[in-house]
Amino acid sequence: MHSETDPIGGDEQTLLTPLQFLPGMGPVRAQRFGRLGLRNAQDVMFLFPRDYEYPAPTATVDSLEEGEPAALVGKVVDAEFVSRRPGRSMFAALIQNESGVVRTLFFNQPFRADQLEIDQAVLISGTPKMNGMRMEFVHPKVTLLDDAEDVPEPRILPVYPLSDGIKQSEVRRVVAETTERLADQLVEVMPDSLRHAAAHELRQCGVALEGDLVKIATALKSLHQPESREHLLAARMRLVFQELLVMQLALAMRRRKLTTDLHSPPLAASAIIDARIVNRFPFELTGDQKTVIGEISRDMARQFPMNRLLQGDVGSGKTVVAVYAMMLAVANGHQAALMAPTEVLARQHFQTLTEILAESRVSVGLLCGSLTTSERRSVIESTAAGSIDLLVGTQALIYGGIDFKSLGLCVIDEQHKFGVAQRVALRSGGVDPHYLVMSATPIPRSVAMTLFGDVELSTLREKPPGRGKVSTYLAHDGWKDRWWTFVRERLDEGRQVFVVAPRVSIPTNEGEAGEDVASVEAVFEDLCNGALADYRLGLLHGRMHPEEKQSIMEAFAAGKIQVLVSTTVIEVGINVPNATVMTILGAQRFGLAQLHQLRGRVARGGHEGHVGVFTDGDTSPEDNERLQVFEQTDDGFELAEADFRLRGPGDMLGRQQSGLPPMRIADLIRDQDVLIAARAIAQSMIDADPDLSGEGLGELRSQVLRRYGKRMNLGDVA
């Protein structure tokens, strides 16, 4: 083992040599570099550049274009100080070659006079601009040459993250020297056979790659000191693939653990059972619904729990698929539960199931907070006895001490935080139910393979007939009077309206940030006393008591309230087919996915819907781009991809939400093809060798467990 007392520059340096003992480092500089998260030589080698400076293309004088980076080789033919005033000096030099002459200017750099002497051969690079009739370089990068014919090969320079007291040149030197000296000591985690198979799979996924993935030492050397763009791309591909492979191996191990350690009742869909269920629906299933039902049926027929995420755009018919799955459980002699995020939505699901199963022998129960003590006791006892086949409820299904006689399936609607602990609470006699989690927030493919990598994914894109069209209008303040007139006309026709504001109240502290943000309380008061004074308005926000919120939502659903002024608490969990108009205020403060969820609350019946989108305060170009995308498309999947592209995974998911460590070099937007290849390779590896115990895989296994073992409960961390 390497000693922390090795002399500076000693021959016995290893990957674990502390920073201060690296050549030219010392304690003070090591402390500064430590602020970058570096502790030892290995950390230095794995400090990945955040960007690169690419050399400008060599050009002739007559081919220079204003604003386009370029490099030029020539000799100094004239040089002089235009101004020598201290703090305001200006030095100019004319550079000439066979194609012409350009002027270079340097401000407050008097040393250039000694550097740029007459007949000195130079290579200058920068971005020229036109000054009069001549191209001019201001503060170009200058490389002195022995001869104008002796032009050095242009270099690609890495750009590293910095901290106070550290220069880019210092980081480049330390990283380059350390990598060159110690990279060959790294243990190769990917054997030759794996690098060959990975390269083949990458090409199958459309990635341009020649030969096998390079070895780790080669990759790091080329990453930090690339000889060419080709070498840099090959290096990055190796490192990106490795990072994504480690993550996908962890997810594949997690999937296998779920299938081997847990047991569920097999619930088969025979031809007779399928026909009986489908005949219950008073409409034709869409093609997507039939496909997804097939996927779910195959999962539920197995002896280990289905763990499937059903994602679908607003109005794509997810509930119908859930009903099929629940009826399949009942047909096999087991119970099913459906958990909704709000009591209003739970009651709507209960009503839907009751109508579909009318005149059948299937018993449907409802468990929610507003039940009386005796009603609740009756539901609990009936569930335990098995006389209730389908139980619909809220979180009370988990935390209310409910015992099922034989729970075969649990459906979770619009619940993003339903994790392992909640699943354990629903186990019955050591047997796990099958799980179907539904989400109306479409997820980009690469995100789904990351965030939900241990979950099988089904998608509904096709919308059933009968949904009203929704028109979206990106408006400005000058439209408000016309918009409220339009709203009143819809109300007079008997329709209902949502008005959404981004916050509950205006800050009381004078000068507090955000005073220009639309407040739901202020909007409610203004509308009651102004544009909608003649109509029945209700106010809804998250600070209200749960019973008060429930009462307001029920009144709106029953038509007693015509206009619901609300925050985003209506984003999910409320279904009012008569609501056809929505006004969104302060729209730039919402993400695209959230805006789309809000829009999905209107036109849930057959009437045409209208959404007016208003901003408050100043909007950035990025905000305007997002809102224009929202106005132009109502496809939730297109919006999800756009949101991912514009905001990135960090903003979109949140690191806490994802539960996964951040990517160090991979980019889920740019590297989707690599991710697909990594997932395929990882699954095939775990299928063949579940514990990664094969020859040459020990270090790879250790890396998987170090990074993901605790997060995914994969076993002992190496």
Q: Superfamily at the CATH H level of the largest domain?
A: P-loop containing nucleotide triphosphate hydrolases
Output the number of helix runs.
Answer: 24
**Globular, elongated, flat, extended or rod-shaped: what is the shape?**
globular
Q: In the CATH classification, which architecture of the largest domain applies?
A: 3-Layer(aba) Sandwich
Total beta strands: 22
Largest sheet descriptor: 7 strands, mixed
The class by helix and strand makeup works out as alpha/beta
Helix content: 25-40%
**How big is the Rg?**
32 Å
Strand content: 15-25%
Which blocks of ≥5 consecutive residues have pLDDT under 50? 1-10, 417-421, 508-516, 650-659
Q: Could you give the order of strands across the largest sheet?
A: 6-7-4-3-2-5-8
Mean of residue pLDDT?
85
CATH topology of the largest domain: Rossmann fold
Quickly name the level 1 CATH class of the largest domain: Alpha Beta
Calculate the terminal CA-CA distance, rounded to whole Å: 18 Å
Number of domains: 4
